[in-house]
Amino acid sequence: MAMVDAGGIRLHVQRMGPAGGRAPHATVVLVHGLLTDSLASHYFTVAPALAAAGLDVVMYDLRGHGRSERPPRGYTLDHNIDDLTSLLDRLDLTGPLHLVGNSYGGTIAFGHTARHPDRTASLTLIESEPATAGWAAKMGRILRRVSTELARDEDAALAWIAAHRGRHTARLARGAARLVRETTLGRDIPASRVLTDAQIRAVRRPVLGVYGGDSDLVDLLPLKRRLLTDFRAVVLPGHEHSVLVEAPGTVGGHILDLIRPGAGVR
Predict the structure, then answer these.
(1) Which segments constitute the AB hydrolase-1 domain (predicted)?
(2) What b-and-e string marks burial along 130-143, b requiring 16 or more CB atoms within 10 Å of the CB?
(3) Domains of the chain by residue range
């Protein structure tokens, strides 16, 4: 475990590597999702298998999440992309790197790739999408609903989550409620700068999309196929947005299938 100063914000970082001191043949950076997520969602799912396959695995908590610093403001997508870029610089990981993002983490990873295409070898989006006007509007609706329900009766909302999703999820939701209540995240993310179609088309690295068959993001696959020149989608039936946690072996296998052809690039 390490705390790294990434351009004025301290981020919690974890790394895994091949057993026995073997030199890794490539580096993969895992970026987690929003509010109830942290690097733990990767640490306990795909990270061990990626490390066992000979990869240097880098995970970190986004600003405001997990053990990373929680500033009161500064939560736009650009802030998070800047954090990722600065963190990679501080770790001397100049690329090309394999980026894997779950949910909002994929949006961050895609934004980094759009800015720095030469630093990315491949990109995996798990239940994720690039930042578009439609994405910003959807995030605004979700965050307004979270804020409204918590403002109305936070204890009742958390009790419902505990009863229907379990106590662990309720604990995560309590932390998410504090993040929304005490920072500008709920206003910043919907107001983030988004990508144009031309900027999305300019991403010409291999992109893998992994989606639950029951997720609404499946409806966006035709758009991704139209805009991305090297895009492959995997749809896992019977899963929704939590496909990373529900099917980590399958998801990890598809990530490795993407990375292995370019495993010599570091």
Answers:
(1) 27-144
(2) bbbeebbeebeeeb
(3) 2-130+196-262
Please name the residues in contact with 83: beta carbons below 8 A apart, sequence gap of 6 or more.
6, 7, 9, 11, 62, 63
How many residues comprise the chain?
Answer: 266
How big is the chain by its Cα radius of gyration, in Å?
A: 18
3 state SS of 209: strand
Q: Provide CATH code, domain 2-130+196-262.
A: 3.40.50.1820
In terms of DSSP H, where are the helices of 63-201?
A: 77-90, 104-115, 133-165, 167-182, 185-188, 197-201
Yes or no: say if 210 and 125 are a contact pair by the CB < 8 Å rule. yes
C-alpha distances out from residue 216 to 60, 110, 180, 190, 239, Å:
27, 19, 24, 19, 11
Reported as a single tens digit per residue, the pLDDT across 203-216 is: 999 999 999 999 99
d(CA 84, CA 82): 5
% of the chain at pLDDT higher than 90:
75
Q: Which amino acid is at 252?
A: G
Q: For residues 152 and 182, give the distance between their C-alpha atoms in angstroms, rounded to a whole number.
A: 16
Whole-number pLDDT of residue 264: 37
Q: Which residues contact 187 (CB under 8 A, 6 or more apart)?
A: none
More confident residue, 231 or 165: 231
The answer to whether the CB of 91 falls within 8 A of the CB of 13 is yes
Provide the pLDDT for residue 211: 98
The string of pLDDT tens digits covering residues 195-254 is 999 999 999 999 999 999 999 999 999 999 999 999 999 999 999 999 999 999 999 999
